[in-house]
Amino acid sequence: MSKPYAIRTALTEVLDGLVEGDPFPPERELAARFGVARETVRQAVHELLVEGLVERRGRGTVVSKPKLVQPLSLRSYTEGAVKMGRKPGRLLVTWEDVEPSPELTAALDVAPGELVMHLERVLLADGQRIGLESTYLPRHRFGAFTETFDPTTSLYAAIRATGVTFDRAVERVETVLASPREAGLLESTTAMPMLRLHRRSVDTEGRPIEVVRSLYRGDRVAFEALLDDRDQ
């Protein structure tokens, strides 16, 4: 067994004896305990940080909360957070009308030159910044939201309240690194792996509802999907 792997395994065993919020031993102490260089310990602790098992708090490191597990389904982030007993929240970053790209024009089925609504929000769970959500909506369908929608609440609930029914969506998930702006909004770094989701949703008549591009901190969020072969 290689030394880095052995130290990584040893640190996992240290975690087994701790609970959420407990301080994690400092690198100097761990290096002395296991008889290895601090750089070896530092690398192993960095892996724990990337996996979301520990987090920096002030000048120290503590055991993290479990990751927020979100379903890959036509449910809002709010529903997923509440299901796990977490308190959802949102911070408004941008809400404006924008000229869409040709790709976005086609995806939302809007007329050439027609503006679309762009809503950008930081997603919170128990006050922690976990994601950055950028939503594009056809203005001819949801223009009234400018006057009626509270951006700190669930957008999906507001859409459903208008009588629109979500039918299906195509969603793609990929691993990326955040831009400096995105990392700043998420209180992270450009070295932290992120999960980027691209979603296009339509209603029961096949009309586009939204195009969403979401960025989630890989150390705080995981995704799951229910799979079966009943239709095979």
TrEMBL record:
SMART domains: HTH_GNTR, UTRA. PROSITE patterns: HTH_GNTR (PS50949). Keywords: DNA-binding, Transcription, Transcription regulation. GO terms for molecular function: DNA binding; DNA-binding transcription factor activity. Pfam families: GntR, UTRA. Residues 1-66 form the HTH gntR-type domain. InterPro entries: Bact_HTH_transcr_reg, Chorismate_lyase_/UTRA_dom_sf, Tscrpt_reg_HTH_GntR, UTRA, WH-like_DNA-bd_sf, WH_DNA-bd_sf. GO terms for biological process: negative regulation of DNA-templated transcription. The keyword Disulfide bond does not apply. CDD domains: WHTH_GntR (cd07377). The keyword Cytoplasm does not apply. This is GntR family transcriptional regulator.
